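Our collaborator T.R. sent over the components below with a one-line note: 'Predict the complex.' Nothing else. No constraints on interfaces, no templates requested, no preferences about which chain binds where. So this is a plain run: every listed entity goes in together, and whatever single assembly comes back becomes the starting point for the next discussion.
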Amino acid sequence: MRRARVAWNGTVTEAEPLDDGRLRLPDGTIVGELDVVWLPPVEPGTIIALGLNYADHAGELSFAAPKQPLFFFKGKNTLIGHRGRTVRPDGVNMMHYECELAVVIGRPARRVKAERAYDYIWGYTIANDYAVRDYLENYYRPNFRVKNRDRATPLGPWVVSHDEIGDPMALRLRTYVNGAVVQEGYTGDMIFSIPYLLECITEFMTLAPGDVILTGTPKGAVNVQPGDEVITEIERIGRLINYIVQPKEEE
Amino acid sequence: MAKVRLRLAGMRQALEAKADPYRGTVSFGGRTHRVDELEWDAPIGGAMYGVALNDQKEWGALSREMNAPPYQKPPKGPVLYMKPANTINAHRRPVILPDGVKHLQAAPALGLVIGRTAARVRREQALDVVLGYTIINDLSIPHEQRHRPAVREQARDGFAPVGPWIVPKEEAASMSSLTARVYVNGRLVQQADPGRFRRPVEQWLAEVTEFMTLYPGDVLFFSWPADAPRVAAGDVVRIEIEGIGGLENEIVPEQGGDER
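Returned assembly:
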């Protein structure tokens, strides 16, 4: 099952993406992909993200791979949908995308064992967890000014259910900037696997249906500029498009 | 008597009431109740963001450490942390002490409840976006490191009692008189006031909303951790903020580890 959330004709509705790119609304209406405003496919209460969960990306940022997962939280202010625009602040030197597999929780999850983790997962979507590295400071790092900026975490285009994905630890990830491949990875290269992460997180906190885990990004973080089209792609899910703009274009 | 907004267990929506913090009573629907005989729920349901390193006393104690690795220098921008939805707890509800943990730090905090969507607010108008004030018991497993987000220490289920109610800002006394007092098992162990804040809350609201929008029901909170008590199983923590009210919770040991 694939589920999107869109604004269409003055209302917000669920929608099912069809193979030809169009969308079917719950009442059977068929609409074109450019006739809707794409919204984040879920409205999570809690977003928990992973830093440095791929050894090659940790190496790229000259960090040793962590011994235990590095978690941080994000607010709902960060989310935007497919085909949205993200601002690159004026005067910064390094803002990069991060293609990440996003796990969507399906049932209240507390003290879940790794062996049963997939029973608690509704499905998967794509996140592009932009970072503005100029704002990095060494306190509670990555600090919110780097990672919790308004509309700087595109999510979507839709959620694909777990049964349709099969094994989420065997998916290719790829990022394109203006059509050129700039980042490639494989979810099987995560340092901490999805079942392990769910066990680890729910050992100390309860996750609720709709909550999202962002599982980290592989190597290939490259600076982006206003005008760039950034596509984050994950096998068996789809392609999430985002456009980088200047602050003044949004004012 | 102060007009407050509160939510009792089972209520979907907050209701308006009159509270008398000195008598320990609250009145609504034509009746007066003792605060202690009601079952409470948290008066907010949004995201809770704490502003770290705002306590001048803590800042002073850390000044050497902040100039050494891994920090190198004191922070310029706001250092924020989040207490996600699972941490929200209510007045007189138990706080679970995790297995294998002896003590928790119970830091009193003043919560600013956001009333209007707040993006890029100016310092001079910052309080316009604030609906009112509430009390937070910012619980954590004691930890020294501030280099990485202290998620395991701060974000456990029930680690953020909030309430008992919200006092609208028009009803509250001036910021400088919002003195917090912490009692453990009835004994006064800490007293602090907003004069200890490194920057005024209006400035933090401006700095935070410069890059992240706060929504109605969200809370931006300011704690006084420098001399906050450590508490153990069986302790009852009561945080009073003058003119706001008193938030009380007992620390209870974890029982079993059953999967829900």
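Summary for T.R.: Residues 143 and 198 of chain B are 22 Å apart (CA to CA).
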